[in-house]
Amino acid sequence: MRLLTNLLTKVTLSSMILTAPAMITGNTNYDAANAFSRKKEGPIPFFTATVIKRFVDHPTVIAMRATTAVFAAVTAPPASSPSLAAEASLAGSVVGSSAESAATASTTSAASTASTSTTSAATNSVAATSVTPASTTSAATASRVAAPATTTSASTTSVATASRLAAPAESPVAASAAAASSADAKAAELRMVINQASMIYTSMDLQDCGLDPKAFEYAWRGYHNLVKKGLLHKKAVLSICDFSQSSRSKRMYVIDVQHKRLLYRTYVAHGQNSGDEYATSFSNENDSYKSSLGFYITQRTYMGRNGISLRLNGVDSGYNDMAMKRKIVLHGSSYVGEKYMQDYGNLGTSLGCPALPLSVSSRIIRTVKNGSCLFIYHPTQQYLDHSAILHG
Asked: H-helix or E-strand containing 135?
C-alpha cells in the first residue's frame, strides 16, 4: 500500500510540474515537440525526467530552467495586463502547492529510499552550481518558505537573552550619569539660593541692622528647603535669632519675606547654661538648660505663667528635635529688655527658651504663630556641616 501511494504521488507531481510552464505563460496549447525543435532559440521551458525525479526525491533542491519570458512574467507582470498578473499569481500558488506535496512525499519515502536519496543529493549538489539567476531566486525563495518556524523563535530568544545579559553592563554607567546629573542640579540650585539670599540681604540693608550675612544665608537656605518640602504653612514670615551676637544686642529679627521688610528687631535671651553675655554651648538634651540650634516650625499658642506663649517644633534631627519634650517655647519675660540690662548689666537667661521682652512678645508671637520658620543661628561648624535641613 505504501509503495502504491508513493507511486501515485510521484505521478501527480510529475504532471503538475510538466504543465506549470504552460500555466505561467498562458499557452495552454503547449507543443512539446515544437518547443524541442526550437531548442537553439532558448532553454527548454519544462523539466526533464531526470530533474523531475530529483525534485520528487529531494524537493528542497529546485533547479528550474526557465526562459527569459517566463522569468519576466513571474517576477514583474505588466501593470497594464491584470489577467497576466492573475495568471502569474495562480501559477505561483500551483508551484507552492507542488513544493508542499513534494515535501510530504519525500518525508514518506525517506525510510525506504535512503540509498537513492544519497545519490540524488550528490547529483543535486553538482546541478546547483550551474543554476541560472532565475533558479537562484526560486531556490532562495523556497529556502525562506521551508525554513522552520523554530529558527525565528530561537533567534528572537537569543536576541532577548543577549539584551538581558547586556543590560547590567550599562546599569552602572546609567546610574553614574544620573548621580552626576542630580549632583549638578543640586549644586545649581544651591548657587541660586545663595544668590537670592545675597540680593535680599543687600536690598533690605540688613547689614546696617547688625545681622550677620552668614546667619541670613543659612536661614534662607533652610527656609528654602522647608518650603520645597511643603512643611511651612506660613511662608511669608522668617524669624532669625543670631546667637553669634552679644545678648546686649537686638539679635532677634522677624522678616516679611513677601514684601522684603523687617517687621521686628528686638532682644532675645538664651539658655542659662549656654553662656553669659554670649551663647557658646548648645544642647538637645532634656534638663540641659541650654539653647538648641537649628530650624523650628511654630505651632499654636497657649497661655502660661509668662502670658501668651508659642510652642516650637524642632525639625533639625539631632540638634533640636527634642524641643517639644523639653517644652522649649517662645515667650515674654521680665528679665529681657533694656531696663533689666540697666539694672544688672546683661540680659537674664532662660531654661533654654528664646525669651522676648514683654513689651513686644505678644505681637511677635501672633505674627509668627501657626507654621512659620524660626532659625537659631551660631557659627558652630559641626552643626553647619551636618544639618539635614541645611543640606536637604
From this structure: helix 133-146
| DSSP secondary structure letter of residue 377 | E
The x, y and z cell numbers of residue 373, run together, are 520658620
- Decide the pairing of beta strands 237-242 and 373-377: parallel
> CA-CA distance, 342 to 338, in Å (whole number)?
6
Detail the DSSP E strand segments found in 142-293.
Answer: 237-242, 252-256, 261-266
Alpha carbons 278 and 248: distance in angstroms, whole number: 9
C-beta of residue 82 within 8 angstroms of C-beta of residue 90: no
Beta-carbon count within 10 A of 350 CB: 24
Please tell me the predicted confidence (pLDDT) of residue 126.
Answer: 33
3-state secondary structure of 241: strand
CA–CA separation, 144 vs 188, rounded Å?
59
Alpha-carbon gap, residue 348 to 335, rounded angstroms: 5
Residue at grid coordinates 549656654: 274
| Contacts (Cβ under 8 Å, ≥6 apart) of 154 | none
For residue 195, the SS3 value is helix
User: Using CA atoms, how far apart are residues 316 and 297, in angstroms rounded to an integer?
Assistant: 10
**If DSSP codes are grouped into helix, strand and coil, which group holds residue 244?**
coil
Candidates 294, 350, 357; CA nearest to 327 is 350
Identify any residues that bridge with 269 across adjacent strands, giving them in sequence order.
Answer: 355
Residue 285 is classified by DSSP as S
Tell me the average confidence (pLDDT) per consecutive run of 10 residues in the chain, 392 residues long.
Answer: 68 62 51 45 49 51 44 45 42 40 38 37 36 38 40 47 51 79 91 97 96 98 97 97 97 97 98 97 97 98 96 98 98 96 93 97 98 98 97 88
Strand runs labelled E in the chain: 237-242, 252-256, 261-266, 294-304, 307-314, 329-333, 355-357, 373-377
Q: Which residues contact 22 (CB under 8 A, 6 or more apart)?
A: 28, 30
266: helix, strand or coil: strand
